[in-house]
Amino acid sequence: MKISFLFLGLLLALLGGLPASGQNACPTPPPAGCPQPFRVVDAGTGQEVTVLQVGCPVRFEQNCGRVTAPTLLYYQVLKGTNTIPVNCFPTTTAGVTTYTPTLADVGPVTVFELSNPTTSTGSGVAYIRNYTVINPTPPTFIVDACTNGVAAISIVNPAYPSYSVQVNGGLPQSFTRSVQVGVTPGVAATFLVTANPGSSCPQSASQTFTVPVPQPAVLASVTRQATTPSGGPAILEFTQEQPE
User: Fold this and answer.
1) Tens digit of pLDDT for each residue in 146-203?
2) Would strands 52-53 and 125-134 be described as parallel, antiparallel, or unpaired?
3) Looking at the predicted structure, is the pLDDT value of residue 17 above 80?
4) Which pLDDT does position 221 carry in this prediction?
5) Residue 215 — pLDDT band, cuts 50, 70, 90?
6) Of 13, 65, 127, 234, which is the most exposed, with the fewest CB atoms less than 10 Å away?
7) What are the residues facing 109 on neighbouring strands?
8) Can you give the three-state secondary structure of 89-125, one letter per residue?
């Protein structure tokens, strides 16, 4: 009799650890051919973002042709990586697809989507994506002079996926960490670097820098050190002034 009860207890424990019939895993693996079932876009420009900024509103959009009725679509942002709500059911309101990060959200966050739930236990299709919330600051960059009228731009605090630089208000040139741009030597140029170009919350900083005009080497002196014992040619030493 004890063996029967023990067997029954083990069986119930095993069954209790399995999902109910017809219930999806939480989170659900992305479907084949759609690695990103939803995306996060800038609320102002509609451009997809990969980094979330404090105070910059974003919007959640379904991907791959997915369309769910607003009353059956939930989004929630949770602190941490691969985080899901209790019982796999959001505490947010159905149909709310906008979100503005706050200082309390800085760090890794999980965007959780639940569509077509049938009960409050969270049975439905749940997808997650991981992001990072940053407190935006203007980019810090260094300008160095190169040869032939070229300036090198280098980002000191890379926190954004992309940047752009404009020289004297010209066309922006995109880059990730560093880039070289042409300038007129001897003329002061203004470099405007913008972080996360295309966002409705850009962060910019500018510097003025002059690439010096290349100077040819100048022969400074010729010194006669000695003659050979046979009275042959003298040994001469040449020095040059290097351009500044």
Assistant:
1) 988 999 999 998 888 889 999 999 999 999 999 999 999 999 999 999 997 667 888 9
2) parallel
3) no
4) 65
5) confident
6) 65
7) 79, 131
8) CCCCCCCCCEECCCHHHCEEEEEEEEECCCCCCCCCE
Contacts of 201 (CB under 8 A, 6+ apart): 42, 44, 53, 55, 56, 136
Domains of the chain: 23-134 (2.60.40), 141-210 (2.60.40.10)
Enumerate the β-bridge partners of residue 167: 191
Residue with tokens 């693996």: 29
**Which residue in 172, 174, 173, 182 sits closest to 147, CA to CA?**
182
Strands (E), the chain: 38-42, 52-53, 58-62, 73-79, 98-99, 107-115, 125-134, 141-145, 150-155, 163-167, 173-175, 178-182, 188-195, 203-210, 218-227, 234-241
Mean pLDDT, rounded, of the chain: 84
* Residue whose pair of structure tokens reads 């010729």 in the numeric block: 222
Evaluate if residue 2 carries a pLDDT over 70: no
Stated length of the chain = 244
